[in-house]
Structures are given as structure tokens and as C-alpha cells.
């Protein structure tokens, strides 16, 4: 084995680390090569004491020699409950030096979103979207990397980083190809599970190379370090015993050799037997005994430092221990001499005058665990008070409050509730959940107990719907939740049930609560919510007569408040899905607006009603041929969510429905672009949700319209676009699109079966809109050869339904279908009629298809040219190729088919 011997002055932990140091040098060189260089990522993994921190220090040294800006941060075992702790350490120092207007200029639109999480801006009035905050933090790095290039970020003890930081780190790691920054991460194996472990796995995968797993030093390297430290006269048996005692752990080797020097032990075989006793004094109980030997005051100081965890200063420790300043300063000096505490590296921008830190996390852990449990709890309580008195807020104090034993303390419950509100405002719902769960243990006073459960349910609504259900059901069964708060709790409960795939129970819950109320705004809101959830259900068998009841109730509404407006929207959507007169659909939808705009309280980011209601409104416009209004609504959603930093499921849905509007208009390229973005966002939220199906279905439908059949099939296969389908409605109609896809790839029998399943689903809902669920026309075309009689009946039914609905698109598509089943002059006449209807329609793709079909039927080069121009303008490549082929065939005099 070759001994890797760096310079004698190099830290012990860098011995036998040539491979890692070379990787660091290469990564820094790549970063510095050009401002347009992509970023880099290195991950060092190893047990405690194997030299991860030393490698980060070496990275700093190498990077600074090359003129890099270096920022660093470290996770802490007792600080994992502090949201954004590590990312704040990393980025905040660079931002707090700027004036607020400068920081806003650098972060741009992300300032109000990421600023509160970084502690440089006050949070807004509503809870922040965690995914939006995460994206904002990634954007902050992008902006800062441009200002401070070449930029290197060092993260030590990442296994102890808070959940919010790990989420950001995983997102950043996946975007480093486009951000010129080098990120170097050090972590222990294991130590973490759940989402945190998954985020670290994402980071490791993004590194693009195997994680560098550090191993212990060899006997030769240990001997080299021993002789470099205590003298070249250290003999071989002594050096071998140093290795045997420490297991080749670099940190333990350094600490042991420091004890050898302190004790003036002769480094020979004769004294080698004393090494084990010396080593025990540097760890575990030995360390605790050594600490106690420094005296009661020094021990109390060390305990207080361990409670604080970070930002350890003589002033804060003096407050926590009630020592006078001189005594505290003397204790700090003793602990530094004993190599328990130290002053942070002055090169570290986080180091302020007077701050201290533990020499090694192993020491911090041993000291913290040595505090008697009762005393430790009491010290956390005092620390919480110190933090609160310092004006840092309830959220900053909450990590200490979480450690206090329950004691029926109403004030502590109030503090934890306030901390939860602060956490939600910066996009940390998991931290809010921990605070509220701890508040329940206190327990709260009877008059506020239900409120705490309600707040907890709201905090966990999107992250843990099953847990939310339990909290809200318990809250609703207790006294103390009345009026609007109770109605809102029932609505949140129904949302959680919906997200937990318990749609029928969601409907029954709202229905039962509505029955408890007399006529008035509360009851009307609950009735509207009931109809909303019934409206998104993919079947109607469980709620017979729903449409009639909804029509009667909406008939009494004039739009004077948001409950009435909601009912008008629901009635418009229901009428549209059932293919009732489109003019009436639009009139109902218009009644729900105020001067053509969404009413206050019904905006996209308002939470009283939920996003589903407005998606129904936009869909009613989209399928009633008012695509201008649909596009305006969905574009407004996109702007609102982007501005508010909501980049999770809400933004995914906004892209999906804007894609739907573009697809209906015939802007197929634009539709494909926004639908791919919707699918990307939906992937981050999680597969299987309705929004995921909407994105996938819309993209497959658009690709089929473009003629990109292979790509459509690939997307369907990759994203599981196949039964079983969700229990909620998906737009466009999921079975119709799947059936059309199967027909396009030549699986005719499967395609017919899928379209017949769409027929049954439509029948279960009491009729259908032939544009919303176009299974009729697709099935008629598919059956034309084998069962022309049935195909003809379907075409007639499609025409009847289309004329009932009354839009140019619906009638034009029905006539196109009828033309496809005919021959000769009747085919030509019907094709010409289809063109006339679809020319008046706002749906460009369908107009283009009708032109091409008419051109083929009438053997008209002029019509084919018009169809070709339209197909090209809307991005329908397959249709354009069909028109070109038909024109060439016509030019040769061959018969057109």
C-alpha cells in the first residue's frame, strides 16, 4: 500500500486523501474556466472523525487561492428542527451586507418569496408555498452566482441539516448544469431517514460520479502523523498502538496525540500501554469526566453552549447560566484550553467577534447528552425565554420550546401557535406541524383545544391528508369551533378527504354539516362545496338527481355573494358537461363575475374555495367556445401563482389548464410547451394525483393533434397513462384520449373498447358534451368499416347532441364525422358544411382538419392549400403532411383517398 504523505503542515485528516483532493482541484478548475461553465457537485461521505470537515477546509483553501468566493454552513444535531437553518447560514451573510433595495434588485421577483425564508425580509400576509420558496432559494443562488462568480458553497454535516434546507439542496443539485457554482457536501452515512434521506439520495445521484466514501487511515499513515506530531523518534510499536487504539480515525488520532503531548508521554513501546486510558479521556464518559474536572462553572458553561447549539457567545451563555460576564469569560478560556470549545475559523464569514463553537460535533453531542434530563429540559425553557427576550420571535424560540416537558402552560401553547404561524408564513409547514403537535401535548385549555387541532389540520392539509382528517374530525367533535371557523374546518376536512381519495365521504361530510345550519350564507357555502365535490366525481350513480337540484338552487342565485357566485359557476360547469345550451352556460359563468373579473375572495390565491372552482369556470368557457375568456382566466392563474411563489400543484394545474385553452384554440406548439412544464411540476408533487393525470392527458392529446403519435405513445408509457383512472374528472376526457391514442398506434380493438368505456362513463353521468368527451365521433370513425350501421347511429347521435349544445365547434365536428362515413357528392356537401361551421369556430386545428378533408373530398388544390396553411400555423405536423401528400397525389392525377 502506498503511503500518501502530504506536506508535514497538512492536517492529519488529509493524509491518504490524494484522490479526494485531486477531485476538488479539478472541480474548482472547471468552475473557474469560464463564467458560462456549468456547476459542479462533490459529495464526501464518512463516519464521524474521518476528515470530512478537513476536506471542506482544503476546498476553501484551494478555491480561495484561485480567487473564488467561498460560503459555508454546517448542520447541527440539535438544530434539525430549525427550518432553513443551514441555507440561511450559507446565503444570509452575503445578503445582509446589502441594502434592502440592493437585495431586492439581486433577487428580483423572488425577493418576497425567498427573502422571508432567508431572514432578510418580513413574510407576507398569507402562508407561503413550500415548493415556491424552494424554487426561490434556487433562484437566489443563481442570481448570487452571477454576482460572486466563481462561487463555491460548502455544506458540512448535511445529515443534520433541516428538512427545508435538504429539499432546497436536492433541487439545487438537479439544476447545477445551468448554475455556475460548485457545491461540496459532507455527510455521515445513515443518520437520517424519510424525506431527508430521499433528498440526500437525490443530491448523491446528481453528483454524476460515485460518492467519495472516506475510509480510516492505514497503519503507515497513522505512523506518519504520529511522528509528525510527537517527533520522529516515536517507535514502531508505539505508532502501531496509536493506530490500534484509534482505529485509524483521523480526529481521534489527533486528539490522542494532543493528550500524549500534554502528558509528556514518551512515544516508545514502554509507554504504549497508557494510550488506551488517554484515548478514553477524549471521548464519551472520559470527556465528561475531564469536563467535570474543570469545575462546576465550566461544566455549566459547556452545557449551556450545547443547549444553544450555534451562535454560542459569552454573553448568551452568561444569560442562560446567570453567571456574571467575568466568570463566563474565564470558563470560555478554560474550555478552549481543554480543546472542548474553540473560536470559529476567521475565514468563515459566519464568525462574529466573541462567538464560540465546539471543537468537533462528537464533543458537542457528548456534552449535550451528559446534561441530566430534567436540567436539560429546564435549560431549554430558559433558552426559549432568552431568545424571546432578545426579540428574535416565537419561531426562533420554538426549537427550545419543543424540548420543554408538558406542564399545562397556556402561555407556552400561545407561543407555539404563534411560532407555527411564523413557520407557515416562510414556507415551513413541517416545522409548524411540530409546534402544534407539541402544543397539543401541553395540553391546551378546553376553549382553545379545538382551534389548535384546526390549525394543525390546516398546516398538514397538503402534506399529510390522512393525518389532517383525524385532526379536523376531532376538532369538529369538540366545543370551541363555531361560526365561520367551523364551516372552514368542514371545508378543509372535505379537501383532505378528497386528497385522500375518499371523495364520497367528503361529499357526505359537507352534506351533513349543511343540514345542521339554517338558511343563510354558511349553509349556502356548504351546499356549494357539496356540489363542487360531486361535480369533480368521475361518475354520477351515487348522486342521482344532482343536476336538477343544483339547477333549482342556482336558479335562486343572482351572484350577490361568493356562495351564490360559486353555485352559478358549478351550474355552468354542470350544464357544460351535460351538453346543455352553450349560450346559457356562458350566461351563468358571466353572472359569477364582477365587471368581467373574479370577485374579491374568489381569486386564484384565495383559499376560501379552492382551485377546483375556478378551474371549472375556465373549463366551462373553454368548451363553450369562449376560449378568449378561458385563456384569460388560466393566464391570470399562472401570473398569480408565479407572483405568489406557488410553484407546486397549483402552478402545475395552471399550466395544464392553460395548455387546455391553447389546445382548444389550435396553438398546439404553445400547448405542448406549457403541458410539458405542467408535467414537470406535477412530477415534483407526486404521481397519481388528479393534476398529474390532467398534465399527462393534455400532453398526449396535444401530441396526437400534432401528429406526433410515437411521442404520444412514449409519454403515455412513461407516465402510466392507462387504467385504473382516478375517481375525479380529468380534462380533456381521459378515456376518449386514451381510445384515440390506441387507434392511432393501430390497436383498433383496444381503442374501440376504450371508447365504449367512455360511452358508459358518459351515460353514468346522464349525457355528455360531444366536444368535452368526443368518444362518439372517434368511435363512429373506428366502426365505419366493420359496423357501418352502428357508426351511422353514433354520427346521428353526435349531431343531435351537438345541435343541443349549439356551438360551431360541436356542430362542425359532428358534421365532419358524418362526412367521414359518406361517399360521393354527399360526402363533399357535408365536408363543405363542416368547414363553414368550423371556420366560425375559435378552434383552429379542427378548422384546419375540416379544410384538408374537404379538399380531399372535393379534389380541390385550393382547399388543400388553405388547410395546409392552417395546419402549419397551428403546429399540426401530421395534418400538414396529409395535406401535402393529398396535393401531390392530386397533381399526378391519381385518385384521392
TrEMBL record:
Which PROSITE patterns is this protein grouped with? TPR
UniProt keyword annotation of Oxidoreductase present: no
Residue stretches making up the Orc1-like AAA ATPase domain? 16-184
What keywords tag this UniProt record? ATP-binding, Nucleotide-binding, TPR repeat
The family database entries (SUPFAM superfamilies) matched by this protein are listed as: P-loop containing nucleoside triphosphate hydrolases, TPR-like
One example GO MF annotation: ATP binding
In terms of InterPro entries, this protein maps to: AAA_16, P-loop_NTPase, TPR-like_helical_dom_sf, TPR_rpt
Name it: ATP-binding protein
**TPR repeats: from-to residues:** 652-685
Which segments does the entry list as coiled coil?
none
Is the Nucleotide-binding keyword given for this protein? yes
Amino acid at each position: 500500500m502506498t503511503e500518501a504523505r502530504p506536506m508535514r503542515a497538512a492536517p492529519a485528516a488529509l493524509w491518504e486523501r490524494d484522490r479526494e483532493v485531486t477531485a476538488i482541484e479539478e472541480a474548482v478548475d472547471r468552475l473557474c474556466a469560464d463564467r458560462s461553465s456549468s456547476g459542479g457537485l462533490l459529495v464526501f461521505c464518512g463516519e464521524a472523525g474521518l476528515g470530512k470537515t478537513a476536506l471542506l477546509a482544503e476546498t476553501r483553501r484551494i478555491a480561495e487561492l484561485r480567487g473564488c468566493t467561498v460560503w459555508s454552513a454546517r448542520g447541527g444535531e440539535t438544530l434539525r428542527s430549525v427550518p432553513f437553518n443551514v441555507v440561511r447560514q450559507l446565503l444570509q451573510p452575503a445578503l445582509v451586507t446589502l441594502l434592502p433595495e440592493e437585495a431586492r434588485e439581486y433577487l428580483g421577483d423572488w425577493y418576497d418569496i425567498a427573502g422571508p425564508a432567508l431572514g432578510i425580509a418580513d413574510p407576507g400576509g398569507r402562508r407561503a408555498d413550500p415548493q415556491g420558496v424552494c424554487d426561490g432559494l434556487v433562484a437566489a443562488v443563481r442570481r448570487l452566482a452571477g454576482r460572486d462568480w466563481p462561487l463555491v458553497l460548502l455544506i458540512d454535516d448535511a445529515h443534520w441539516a433541516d428538512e427545508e434546507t435538504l429539499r432546497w439542496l436536492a433541487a439545487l443539485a438537479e439544476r447545477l448544469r445551468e448554475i455556475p457554482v460548485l457545491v461540496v457536501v459532507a455527510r455521515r452515512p445513515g443518520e437520517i431517514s424519510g424525506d431527508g434521506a430521499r433528498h440526500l439520495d437525490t443530491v448523491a445521484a446528481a453528483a454524476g460520479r460515485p460518492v467519495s466514501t472516506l475510509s480510516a487511515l492505514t497503519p503507515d499513515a497513522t505512523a506518519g502523523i504520529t511522528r509528525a506530531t510527537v517527533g520522529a523518534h516515536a517507535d514502531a510499536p508505539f505508532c502501531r498502538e496509536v493506530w490500534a487504539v484509534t482505529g485509524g480515525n483521523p480526529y481521534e488520532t489527533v486528539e490522542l496525540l494532543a493528550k500524549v503531548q500534554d502528558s509528556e508521554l514518551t512515544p516508545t513501546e514502554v509507554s504504549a500501554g497508557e494510550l488506551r486510558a488517554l484515548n478514553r479521556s477524549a471521548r464519551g464518559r472520559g470527556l465528561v469526566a475531564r469536563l467535570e474536572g474543570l469545575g462546576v462553572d465550566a461544566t455549566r458553561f459547556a452545557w449551556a453552549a450545547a443547549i444553544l447549539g450555534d451562535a454560542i457567545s459569552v454573553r448568551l451563555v452568561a444569560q442562560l447560566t446567570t453567571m456574571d460576564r467575568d466568570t463566563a469569560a474565564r470558563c470560555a478560556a478554560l474550555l478552549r484550553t481543554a480543546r472542548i470549545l474553540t473560536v470559529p475559523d476567521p475565514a468563515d464569514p459566519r464568525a462574529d467577534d466573541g462567538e464560540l463553537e465546539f471543537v468537533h460535533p462528537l464533543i458537542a453531542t457528548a456534552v449535550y447528552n451528559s446534561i441530566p434530563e430534567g436540567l436539560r429540559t429546564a435549560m431549554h425553557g430558559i433558552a426559549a425565554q432568552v431568545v424571546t427576550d432578545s426579540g428574535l420571535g416565537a419561531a426562533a424560540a420554538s426549537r427550545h420550546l419543543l424540548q420543554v416537558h408538558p406542564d399545562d402552560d397556556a402561555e407556552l401553547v400561545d407561543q407555539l401557535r404563534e411560532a407555527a404561524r411564523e413557520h407557515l408564513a416562510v414556507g415551513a409547514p413541517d416545522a409548524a406541524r411540530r409546534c402544534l403537535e407539541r402544543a397539543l401535548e401541553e395540553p391546551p385549555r378546553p376553549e382553545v383545544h379545538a382551534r389548535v387541532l384546526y390549525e394543525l389540520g390546516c398546516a398538514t392539509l397538503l402534506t399529510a391528508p390522512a393525518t389532517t382528517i383525524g385532526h379536523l374530525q376531532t376538532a369538529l367533535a369538540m366545543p370551541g369551533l363555531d361560526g365561520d371557523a367551523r364551516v372552514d374546518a368542514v371545508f378543509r376536512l372535505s379537501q383532505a378527504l378528497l386528497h385522500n381519495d375518499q371523495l364520497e365521504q367528503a361529499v357526505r361530510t359537507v352534506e351533513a354539516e349543511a343540514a345542521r345550519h339554517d338558511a343563510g350564507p354558511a349553509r349556502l357555502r356548504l351546499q356549494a362545496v357539496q356540489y363542487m365535490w360531486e361535480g369533480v366525481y368521475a361518475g354520477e350513480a351515487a348522486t342521482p338527481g344532482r343536476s336538477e337540484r343544483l339547477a333549482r338552487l342556482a336558479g335562486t342565485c343572482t351572484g350577490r355573494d361568493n356562495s351564490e357566485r360559486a353555485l352559478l359557476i358549478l351550474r355552468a360547469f354542470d350544464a357544460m358537461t351535460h351538453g346543455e345550451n352553450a349560450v346559457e352556460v356562458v350566461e351563468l359563468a358571466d353572472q359569477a363575475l364582477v365587471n368581467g373579473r373574479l370577485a374579491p375572495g374568489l381569486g386564484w390565491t384565495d383559499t376560501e374555495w379552492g382551485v377546483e372552482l375556478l378551474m371549472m369556470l375556465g373549463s366551462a368557457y373553454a368548451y363553450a367556445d369562449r376560449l378568449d375568456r378561458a385563456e384569460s382566466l388560466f393566464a391570470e392563474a399562472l401570473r398569480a401563482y408565479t407572483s405568489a411563489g406557488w410553484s407546486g400543484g397549483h402552478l402545475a394545474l395552471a399550466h395544464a389548464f392553460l395548455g387546455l385553452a391553447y389546445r382548444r384554440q389550435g396553438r398546439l406548439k404553445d400547448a405542448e410547451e406549457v403541458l410539458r412544464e405542467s408535467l414537470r411540476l406535477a412530477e415534483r408533487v407526486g404521481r397519481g394525483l388528479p393534476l398529474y393525470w390532467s398534465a399527462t392527458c393534455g400532453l398526449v392529446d396535444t401530441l396526437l393533434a400534432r401528429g406526433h403519435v410515437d411521442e404520444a405513445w412514449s409519454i403515455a408509457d412513461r407516465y402510466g397513462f392507462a387504467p385504473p383512472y382516478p375517481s375525479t374528472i380529468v380534462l380533456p376526457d381521459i378515456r376518449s384520449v386514451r381510445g384515440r391514442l390506441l387507434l392511432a398506434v393501430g390497436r383498433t380493438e383496444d381503442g374501440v373498447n376504450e371508447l365504449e368505456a367512455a360511452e358508459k362513463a358518459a351515460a353514468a353521468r346522464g349525457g355528455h358534451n360531444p366536444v368535452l368527451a368526443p368518444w362518439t365521433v372517434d368511435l363512429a370513425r373506428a366502426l365505419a368499416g366493420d359496423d357501418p350501421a352502428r357508426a351511422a347511429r353514433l354520427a346521428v347521435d353526435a349531431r343531435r347532441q351537438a345541435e343541443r349544445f349549439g356551438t360551431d365547434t360541436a356542430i362542425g365536428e359532428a358534421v365532419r364525422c358524418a362526412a367521414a362515413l359518406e361517399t360521393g357528392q354527399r360526402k363533399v356537401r357535408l365536408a363543405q358544411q363542416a368547414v363553414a361551421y368550423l371556420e366560425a369556430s375559435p378552434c383552429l386545428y379542427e378548422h384546419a382538419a375540416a379544410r384538408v378533408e374537404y379538399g380531399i373530398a372535393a379534389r380541390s388544390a385550393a382547399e388543400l392549400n388553405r388547410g395546409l396553411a392552417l395546419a402549419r400555423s397551428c403546429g399540426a405536423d401530421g395534418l400538414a403532411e396529409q395535406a401535402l401528400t393529398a396535393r401531390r397525389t392530386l397533381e399526378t392525377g391519381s385518385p384521392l383517398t
